[in-house]
């Protein structure tokens, strides 16, 4: 038996239960991993609330972890007991001391990267990789708007976009978060509680608008984000921490011939080759110092409910990690 967080009903952080589970032994193509660190992501909140539907009830949440291989399935090659591996996106179930994983969904963690850093950056960092390299290819001269610029994804997004030569505008809620966003490469910072971000973006860009908006907030920012775009600009809605955006009529996009996409990480790392390529570029940027990972909060896995509470109330910045 191992300890894990289980969800029997949808709702607030209080539905996260700490209990014993049986996970069994790895079958063909599987490995058993003892987790050293588990990344907390907003998608975990979406599943807990039922915004995204878990395939089974009850379920163990979590889509990101780093751990040591403790057993391999029969006939499996390429993985061995003692390997340090990481995974993100799927399958769900990382809020556990140990878990069974498909061997083709894990990647080796370079020895130069601390397991806690790796666990805090896998899902968020691979998300940023596809956002700035494939979803919309950020290049020198582009101007980008990043909402929640001091959050786990936002922090990395600002750094990576800045490294690619873009002018980065970030929105944050507090002066403390503004200071972090500035350190992360934001050229212009908007305190959205004190000023209207659409008006401010208009001033910063002299009325031109931005090439792309990366919006993980959703309902509260969606219409304003569209208004910030230049003609033929890209609206990338990759999260909904404030709620699901209202439906958008196609005619709203026609006004400026806008592009709108709602991507998810899984579809960008569907194949083993894409997974290794995405994680490889991420780890290279961490190792070289292009990306600074802010692991600002650590909680025991047993206190996952408190971590969810703090994440949802915007008390956290940077990455949050659960330690089994």
UniProtKB/TrEMBL annotation:
Swiss-Prot/TrEMBL keywords: NADP, Oxidoreductase
Domain Enoyl reductase (ER): 11-322
SUPFAM superfamilies on file: GroES-like, NAD(P)-binding Rossmann-fold domains
Entry-linked Pfam families: ADH_N, ADH_zinc_N
Cell membrane listed as a keyword: no
Keyword NADP annotated: yes
GO CC terms: cytosol
Annotated GO MF terms: mRNA 3'-UTR AU-rich region binding; NADPH binding; quinone reductase (NADPH) activity
SMART domains on file: PKS_ER (SM00829)
Alphabetical list of PANTHER family matching this protein: QUINONE OXIDOREDUCTASE PIG3-RELATED, QUINONE OXIDOREDUCTASE-RELATED
Name the UniProt record assigns to this protein: Probable quinone oxidoreductase
Organism whose genome encodes this protein: Nyssa sinensis
């Amino acid at each position: 038996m191992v300890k894990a967080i289980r969800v029997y009903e949808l709702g607030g952080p209080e539905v996260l239960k700490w209990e014993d589970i049986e996970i069994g032994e790895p079958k063909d193509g599987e490995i058993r991993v003892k987790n050293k660190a588990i990344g907390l992501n907003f998608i975990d909140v979406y599943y807990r609330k039922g915004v995204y539907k878990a395939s089974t009830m009850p379920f163990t949440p979590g889509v990101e972890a780093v751990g040591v291989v403790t057993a391999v399935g029969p006939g499996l090659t390429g993985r061995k007991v003692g390997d340090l591996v990481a995974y993100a996106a799927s399958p769900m179930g990382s809020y556990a001391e140990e878990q069974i994983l498909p061997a083709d969904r894990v990647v080796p963690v370079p020895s130069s990267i601390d397991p806690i850093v790796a666990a805090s950056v896998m899902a968020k960092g691979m998300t940023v990789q596809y956002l700035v390299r494939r979803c919309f290819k950020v290049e020198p001269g582009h101007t980008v708007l990043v909402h929640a610029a001091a959050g786990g994804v936002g922090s990395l997004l600002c750094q990576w976009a800045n490294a690619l030569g873009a002018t980065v505008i970030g929105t944050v809620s507090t002066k403390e978060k503004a200071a972090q966003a500035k350190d992360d490469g934001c050229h212009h910072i908007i305190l959205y509680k004190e000023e209207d971000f659409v008006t401010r973006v208009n001033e910063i860009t002299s009325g031109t608008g931005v090439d792309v908006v990366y919006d993980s907030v959703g309902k509260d920012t969606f219409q304003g984000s569209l208004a910030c775009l230049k003609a033929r600009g890209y609206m990338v809605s990759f999260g909904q921490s404030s709620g699901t955006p209202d439906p958008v009529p196609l005619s709203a996009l026609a006004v400026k011939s806008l592009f709108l996409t709602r991507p998810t990480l899984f579809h960008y790392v569907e194949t083993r080759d894409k997974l290794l390529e995405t994680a490889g570029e991420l780890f290279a940027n961490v190792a070289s110092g292009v990306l600074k990972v802010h692991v600002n909060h650590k909680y025991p896995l047993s206190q996952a409910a408190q971590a969810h509470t703090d994440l949802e109330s915007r008390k956290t910045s940077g990455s949050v990690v659960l330690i089994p």
